[in-house]
Amino acid sequence: MNPSQDILHKIRRLEIRTKQLVQSAFAGQYQSVFKGQGMSFEEVRPYAPGDEIHSIDWNVSARTGDLHIKKFKEEREATVMILIDVSASGNFGSYQESKRLVAAQVAAVLAFSATYNNDKVGLLLFSDQIELFLPPKKGRSHHLRLLREMFYFQPKSPRTNIHQALEYLNKIMNRRAIVFIISDFLDNTDFERPLMVMAKRHDLIALPIIDPAEEKLPDVGTIVLEDPETGEQFEVNTASTQLREEYAETSARRLLELKRFFRSRRIDTVPLHTEKDYLPPLRTFFSSREKRKRK
Fold first, then answer.
1. What's the CA angle centered on 103, arms 175 and 30, to 5 degrees?
2. What is the pTM of this model?
3. Least packed by Cβ within 10 Å: which of 141, 166, 186, 278?
4. How is the chain split into domains, by residue range?
5. Architecture of domain 3-31+77-294 in this structure
6. Model confidence over 124-156: pLDDT tens digits?
């Protein structure tokens, strides 16, 4: 089997597994949570007692001599955009799976949930540049392409620039969309402003990916660490209690600030951890959002 056939075989297996996960785990919750993004004109009909006055079509009413109203129906079809951070920091994972792999698995579940409900799905992969943009489409061939890029795309740059990715999408996406951004949010650029702009224009959901080793350093003596995005190496004595405490405090502060920012802007978040199953937090998110929609 040549490499391209092998990848195609793996993608088809991913498709089957993802389909089974979605059908067993979410069972229609996606459809009730993410409804159509607008209203489309259906017909003009005579006014009936109880109809909303603002629905009256005054032009038709004047022409016919009788009151008529415009009837609209909700557009079921939605547009979904999935943004994945493919910078080198995503290759890190202190357990069995890296952040990049968890991101791909979650993105595959979200993409199939949308496809299963006949929504259009697009993909944007970014580092400190736009690595790949696939416009929202439907169809099985498009879905298989999404899976291939999610799992097997090789980025050109190791660095991160969330600000640039958000600005790019804000410029090209005119129609309101459901936007999922999957990243570890380890980025020194100021991405808060374009994130706020996106939250106003679209239904934005952030999925921060966290590895336990980024929260607490293990006591394993003196080790050499390397920044995956810059290649810079430095020696660290993890036996130092003070160093481990300072590291944990800095990490906790960063995550708390990120959480507070999302909450202050009313941006839904689904924190994901590399050492834990990603399905329970996704289920919780869909369930809690479904309850909120009913209120």
1. 50
2. 0.83
3. 141
4. 3-31+77-294, 39-74
5. 3-Layer(aba) Sandwich (3.40)
6. 999 999 999 999 999 999 999 999 999 999 999
